[in-house]
């Protein structure tokens, strides 16, 4: 029953975030909270031109008109929209500036944590059931590695697995970021769709990664791991491994319904020996189990001759079975730790693999972070240098395959990588270089 003029006067004392929140109460509040007079004052006070000692550009010195034309010639909400666009553009500029310095070993931005903090970035998952009802899970534990972040969600109120149809992974950022205080989860936020997974018939349509006495793990590309309680056949937790490459772009620059699409690669002029298919590639590889790292290594000067191209793949040999000088010992035994509100566990013989492959000019060519499992290949190694069982661990997606062969040394209780080969998709190579192999 309060007159609109009084409400408008009250709203004029609110800041931008509060105005956006109060506009969600009802249609009247929404219309009043769109008032151009209120938003023009906010726009003018928060986005004043920067002063410089020497010269000032014309767009910097242009004053925002405060007259009647700036109010009545514009549709309701015009200055609100302008203010939000300017603020979000400023945050994206700061984030992209932090993402420019690159790590010489990984070829990726090394200020990822700072960039995420500046943007106020967090991640959520949304599970949709067969009736279209959405279940949002926000509480998450983060663990950072050189080239990836692993996010673990657990809840006491998961929807029944039998009725879940899809799971969507979103990056979430505050619509208006206040640098003086932490982001408010109840404030206005925007979502950026990173990935969508179809969970219908999960146990049949995914890869079984491993199990312990309480849970079974199932994996879906890219990087999704779902833990299922053995006794109840219900969701226990969800874990996602996100590679830093394009992580910020996908978490910030996408929309709530469409994933961010990176621009196509621009091929460089290459006058290398025509007998080479690829040359001067670099690989950074991590194997970890959330809390511990089993291997972290960088391999340079990788190449592939045209004779190594077969069956739709380019073969890059990183560690050769025949060259024992390059065989790699691993620290510890494989296992992937998990936790919920009550229980904790560790699933043996599986881990998270982070792969970053750079082309000859240092551009990220193929990057992923994904859970993989280890399985026995043979009870005897057949190698003169080692006496022990042979294990294999493999990964495959649309861009390539990774094949790793390991030997378990019982005396020293360690794995040795004796063979590591990458198979790159010919289709990916042709799209990257604009060629036709």
From TrEMBL:
<dbReference type="Pfam" id="PF12937">
    <property type="entry name" value="F-box-like"/>
</dbReference>
<dbReference type="InterPro" id="IPR001810">
    <property type="entry name" value="F-box_dom"/>
</dbReference>
<protein>
    <submittedName>
        <fullName>FBX15 protein</fullName>
    </submittedName>
</protein>
<feature type="domain" description="F-box">
    <location>
        <begin position="1"/>
        <end position="42"/>
    </location>
</feature>
<dbReference type="GO" id="GO:0019005">
    <property type="term" value="C:SCF ubiquitin ligase complex"/>
</dbReference>
<dbReference type="InterPro" id="IPR036047">
    <property type="entry name" value="F-box-like_dom_sf"/>
</dbReference>
């Amino acid at each position: 029953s309060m007159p609109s003029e009084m409400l408008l006067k009250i709203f004029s004392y609110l800041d931008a975030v509060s105005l956006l929140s109060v506009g969600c109460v009802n249609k009247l509040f929404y219309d009043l909270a769109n008032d151009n007079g209120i938003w023009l004052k906010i726009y003018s006070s928060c986005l004043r031109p920067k002063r410089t000692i020497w010269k000032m550009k014309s767009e910097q010195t242009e004053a925002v008109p405060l007259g009647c034309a700036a109010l009545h010639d514009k549709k309701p909400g015009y200055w609100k929209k302008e203010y939000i666009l300017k603020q979000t553009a400023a945050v994206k500029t700061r984030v992209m500036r932090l993402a420019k310095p690159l790590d010489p070993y990984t070829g990726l931005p090394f200020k990822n944590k700072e960039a995420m903090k500046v943007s106020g970035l967090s991640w959520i998952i949304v599970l949709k059931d067969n009736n279209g009802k959405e279940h949002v899970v926000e509480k998450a534990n983060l663990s950072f590695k050189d080239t990836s972040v692993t996010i673990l969600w657990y809840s006491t109120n998961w929807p029944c697995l039998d009725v879940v149809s899809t799971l969507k992974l979103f990056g979430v950022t505050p619509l208006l970021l206040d640098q003086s205080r932490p982001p408010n989860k109840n404030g206005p936020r925007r979502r950026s769709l990173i990935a969508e997974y179809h969970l219908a018939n999960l146990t049949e349509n995914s890869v079984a990664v491993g199990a312990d006495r309480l849970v079974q793990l199932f994996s879906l590309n890219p990087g999704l791991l779902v833990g299922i309680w053995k006794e109840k056949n219900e969701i226990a937790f969800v874990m996602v491994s996100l590679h830093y490459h394009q992580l910020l772009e996908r978490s910030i620059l996408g929309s709530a319904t469409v994933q961010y699409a990176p621009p196509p690669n621009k091929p460089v002029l290459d006058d290398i020996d025509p007998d080479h298919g690829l040359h001067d590639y670099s690989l950074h590889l991590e194997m970890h189990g959330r809390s511990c790292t089993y291997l972290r290594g960088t391999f340079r000067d990788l190449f592939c001759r045209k004779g190594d191209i077969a069956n739709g793949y380019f073969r890059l040999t990183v560690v050769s079975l025949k060259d024992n000088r390059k065989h790699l010992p691993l620290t510890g035994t494989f296992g992937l730790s998990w936790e919920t509100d009550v229980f904790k566990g560790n699933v043996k013989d599986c881990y998270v693999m982070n792969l970053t492959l750079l082309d000859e000019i240092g551009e990220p060519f193929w990057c992923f972070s994904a859970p993989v499992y280890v399985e026995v290949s043979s009870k005897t190694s057949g190698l003169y240098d080692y006496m022990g069982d042979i294990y294999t661990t493999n990964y495959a997606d649309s861009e390539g395959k990774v094949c790793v062969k390991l030997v378990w040394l019982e005396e020293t209780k360690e794995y040795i990588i004796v063979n590591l080969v990458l198979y790159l998709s010919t289709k990916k190579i042709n799209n990257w270089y604009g060629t036709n192999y």
